[in-house]
Write a structure and sequence with these properties.
alpha+beta, Aldehyde Oxidoreductase, domain 3, 3-stranded antiparallel sheet, 2 helices, about 25% strand
Length: about 140
């Protein structure tokens, strides 16, 4: 699973996550490396284990011929309290890392395989993520 080598702070504050106030992605909104990309249509927090399961699902379809790029990296720690613990007594322990995804962000890119294989691989990867997704090609220029 993906996680940063070093973090400045052990625990972060949550930040603002209201879907209407999220805005659209400015960075990482175009297919840059591959021929096809998986674009997020909604915003959410994506955990490192979700990214890993999406990567595995896509790589099984792509095989050894294709190349895949992961365009997001989970660098934000999230915390969770243990089960059946009463309210209060401080914040929970760090549980893992996640990334805040905005609508319009390219999550994965694929190259070196046919269009049908690339679209099917990215579709399968999209089912593993908590955001609505759409497969786009390099030629397609559209806003979310």
């Amino acid at each position: 699973m993906l996680f940063p080598k070093k973090a400045k702070h052990r625990k972060w504050q949550r930040g603002r996550t209201h879907p209407d106030k999220l805005g659209t992605a400015v960075r990482g909104a175009k297919v840059s490396f591959g021929s096809f990309g998986l674009k997020a249509l909604s915003g959410s927090r994506v955990r490192s284990n979700q990214i890993e399961s999406a990567r595995v699902a896509a790589n099984r379809k792509i095989g050894k011929l294709g190349k895949m790029w992961i365009r997001i990296f989970p660098d934000m720690p999230f915390t969770a309290k243990a089960a059946e613990v009463p309210m209060g007594k401080g914040k929970g322990d760090p549980k893992g890392y996640c990334v805040q995804v905005k609508p319009g962000r390219i999550l994965f890119e694929v190259d070196g395989v046919s269009e049908e294989v690339a679209r099917e691989a990215l579709r399968k990867a999209g089912t593993k993520l908590p955001v609505k997704t759409k497969v786009v090609s390099r030629e397609e220029v559209d806003n979310i």
